[in-house]
Structure formats: structure tokens, C-alpha cells
Amino acid sequence: MDTKQITPYREKVFAMVLTKMMSRALDSCIVTDLSVIRWLTGFSGSSARLVVTPEKSWLFTDFRYKEQASREVDIAEVVIAADGFLAELASGKYLLGETVGLQSDNITWHEATRLIEQLHGKQRVIPLDSFFDEFRMIKHEIELVKMRRAAEISELVLAEVITMISPSVTELDIAAEISFQHKKLGADKDSFEPIVAGGPRSAMPHAKPSRALFKSGELIVIDMGCVFEGYASDQTRTVALGHVSSEARNVYRIVKEAQALGIASAKCGMIAKELDDEVRRFITAHGYGNEFGHGLGHGVGLEVHEEPRISSKGECILQENMVFTIEPGIYLPGKFGVRIEDTVVMGPNGVTPLQGFNKELIEL
After folding, report:
1. Residue 82 backbone phi and psi in degrees, to 5
2. What is the CATH number of domain 141-353?
3. Using one digit for the tens of pLDDT, what is the confidence trace for 293-338?
4. CB–CB of 74/7 below 8 Å?
5. In the chain, where are the structural domains located?
6. pTM of the full predicted structure?
7. Which residues are registered as beta bridge partners of 350?
8. What's the CATH number for 3-135?
């Protein structure tokens, strides 16, 4: 994306972070989470640390990313730390001030203790947990454009791979095809390992694809997503190979109606757990409350699982431009499972799904 478009957005993001730092009386902040670093700077490498101060910011990486960082980062000074981040800090070239915030929710104990030892006597270190979440939950239009494209790619792939399902094909065959087609259509990668599970295995919400062949009369859960320019998509559909039992059809109907209820009920100002409760009550009223054991959804962005959490414990207030999933499921061990999932964007009057893929039961 054009740097002239990115820079004002990055500047706005940095301004929000600096304002929060000032409210916490922090002179500087050390960022260790690569997804936050990408959100703040645009850097997409696998090795980086970021130091933010009101006067200047530095992105520390290694020689492998020298050229890449020079192309991607325009909001912070890039430092190639030949001897590592801690050695650079020890040089005394970087003014951190007296109070340093450390992103404590994404750092190893080993690195944290070494860093604190390094700064001991010079700076006071304040652990920061979920410091950036309130900003990252609200998506900018630049981010939404990428997420819409990621969703579009996955929908095209889903339409293709469904036609390949037959009794001579395995779960792993379909999972591999999903990954191949994602990249072929321009995705960076899968946003998570595809879940493809047929028959009794579909009752495992996070089943790993196996060498099992699909069988006629079975339901098949396909949960998949991709990453486009750093941003993730996530969608699930449940299809049938041949004719399935009346019980399976009934459960599918309940899940489909529950998912539609979730989409219709989501409104700005709701507490996340209220939305979860609304859908959970519906499924419970149909006799399957104990078979819906996970949360209704989760935030999506640079990570496929991030805030807000749409669950019975979710205290976040839903706001405009939040992006999250609505994915009720019913799982009957030894029989089958059903899950239907869309990623939705919160607007002023409710949510709009990024996906438009058919939700009627497809019988292949």
C-alpha cells in the first residue's frame, strides 16, 4: 500500500499510544509483540523489538531484515542490532527516561528478567498487559480493505474445494488444497491450519485434518481463513456428503438460526457477553446448551484470535468498526458436529458479515 496513505494512519496510531503512555506517566515503552509492532510500524519480519518515546522511536531488528525494514518502516528509526536488542540498550545511546513500560503479555520470562536486570538502577520498569488492545480492536478503513480481501479469497477457495469432496478424498487432501489455493489467489498464508473434519470427527471443534476418507451420509466441518497483507479472515461452513439423518438436519437448522440470531442481535453498546448469552439461550432452549461449549466468537485482525472476546466472560463494550466472528456450534460426540461462522464488522446500526457464502445445507 502507498506510503502516503499509510503514514497519516501510523501517525494517528502513535499519537493514541503516546497519549495513553502520558496518562500512565510512562517515559518510554518497549513493545515485544510482533503483531503490535506491525500494527504500529508496518514491519512484517519475524524478529523485532520496538521502543516508543514521545521524542523518537526505534525499531530493532537483525541483518536479515535490513532491506525489508527500510522499505516497510517510515515511522521509526531502524536499528540493525548485530549483537541483539539488549546489547543495543546497554550501549546507552537510547534515552528511555525514568519510567519504562514493558509489554509483559508477550515476552519470555528469560528475556524479561534480563531486560529488567539491564535497566535496574537506571529506569523503573512497569509491566503492561493488554495495553494496545483498546486501539487495535477498532479497525481503520485501511485495515478493513485488507480484511475484506482476505475474506473474499477464502470464499473463492471454499467454493472450489467443496466441489472436490468425495468418498475417494481425505480430510488432508482438502486441507492441503485450501492452503495451496489461498496462496495461488494472493494470500500471504493460511491464518491458521485449516480444520477439515468429517463424520464423528466433526464433533471435535478443533480437529486436525486426518487421512480419513469422507463417507456418504456424513457432515463435514470446514473452518478456514487466510492472511492478506497481514490481516486475517476466518469462516466456517458445514456441508453434507450425500443425504444425512433427520437429527443432523435438525441440528444444522438450529445452528443456522442461532448464527442468524447472533448477527441480527449484535449492536453497538452491547457488552460482549450479552451477545453470547442471547445466542446461548436460544441453543439451550432447543436442548443443546451443553453441546455448545465454546464462546460465540472472537476478534480478528492482524491475529486471527484477538480482542474482543465474545463469550460468557466478555466484558468489552461492542463499538463501531470492531471486527469479530459469530460462530455458534453444536457437537455430539461419536455422531457429528455443526458450526457456521462469519466474520462481521460492527456498524452504527448493527453488524455486516464479510462473508456471503451460502448457509443452506449443501448436500454434495
Report:
1. -60, -35
2. 3.90.230.10
3. 999 999 999 999 999 999 999 999 999 999 999 999 999 999 999 9
4. yes
5. 3-135, 141-353
6. 0.93
7. 347
8. 3.40.350.10
